[in-house]
Design goal:
single chain; alpha/beta; two-stranded antiparallel ribbon; 9 strands; 49% helix
Amino acid sequence: MIKQRGSGAGLYIVYLFFRFFGYPGLRFILFFVVLYFSLTTPTIKRALREYYLLCTGEFNFRIYYRHLFSYALVFSDRFLSKRFLSRYHANAQNEISFLSALEKGGLFLFSHVGDWSICERLLSEKNITVNIVMQEVIKESIQGFGKFIEDKQHSTIKIIDLSEGSIPVAIRIANAFQKGEIVAMMADRFLTQQGGIPVTFLGKRVIINKNPFEVGYNRNVPLIVLLSFRESDYHYNVSYYGLTPYDRTLPKEEALAKTAQEYADILEKAVKEYPDQWFNLYDFFNTATAV
């Protein structure tokens, strides 16, 4: 489990600075918050050092601070965009081909890049029902702030909580597909070694989440990678990448590995373009090393 940082009280302060002073006020308060965390999180710093050396070939304190500041902005946007939704814009690329794949449902692969919740809101605006399979431990104070700042619930977004257990989760996923709805799963972070699949990412053999690829194979639904990146204040870019249909002439495990690697290649290209917006802030390359 990744240690959670921040608090509801801190988010209230962020909200007030943004409400009265906009992004200049937000950046002012985040400067001190990020400086504190950049000086007191050596474990995250070591993890990001390896990531950056693999991704860009360089790492220093300035890069580390910039990465944490980028995370702070995106994390703030996740909440602020709920209250100030009309100010935020998501530029959806490849949208026509993306929408054509949704008529009978499909499986979206989310990743810890940019703000994946922007994808969530983009889909709710189009009245597309999405069932997000996730296990996110959120402090009670942060949950309270989320309820405070959100004007309304997105009725087209449903959460399938992994803590419910494997059988109830499997039933809810199956029901969603039967209704022609969308299921979304995080692909770049595995929960157990047994639920992982090896791929090559940034030149290193690592493990990612096997479950979405297995679900897609068993249910025979299209797999679409959704990636969102913060371009500027109030503006995000969202891209859709349809994965190649499974090669069913291969044994199942080989077909899964081939598709998982295709996903990893897409993710690698994206993080090389936006290295400061991949937010797996833990020792990913050692924890997820495939031996």
